[in-house]
Hints:
By secondary structure, the protein is mainly beta. 5% of the residues lie in helices and 37% in strands.
Amino acid sequence: xxxxxxxxxxxxxxxxxxxxxxxxxxxxxxxxxxxxxxxxxxxxxxxxxxxxxxxxxxxxxxxxxxxxxxxxxxxxxxxxxxxxxxxxxxxxxxxxxxxxxxxxxxxxxxxxxxxxxxxxxxxxxxxxxxxxxxxxxxxxxxxxxxxxxxxxxxxxxxxxxxxxxxxxxxx
Length: 171
């Protein structure tokens, strides 16, 4: 999930998600986000094309892109969000082969912002496959934000629902 909490609309062109597999090597397995506007308060979900039925159904009910890479994990894969080669945010420990994220769900705390250096203190841990709240958050001041539904980079429909989060990506 990517959230725009910048206070401005941003064009996702130039943003990329990359994965470091098994805690070693460079961040590769890159997905370039499609050119489109993400308004302040909007989120976008990246859902693996082979995800279970629940997540696949969720992808048609939320602002989502169904992708294959880099959203597959085995517990020691770090993910970064970059723009023009600059790291904006990181989820997971880079260069650690230990399985720090195996069989758990991490959800960023409402008090934490995007961070180019991962800190586990900024995340709450839940049991594996905890999907409640995905695409929805409850930060004071955000409600009824417009959502655009995307599948394979095509807009499906538009809707309105409440969500929140205090993380963001820069313009």
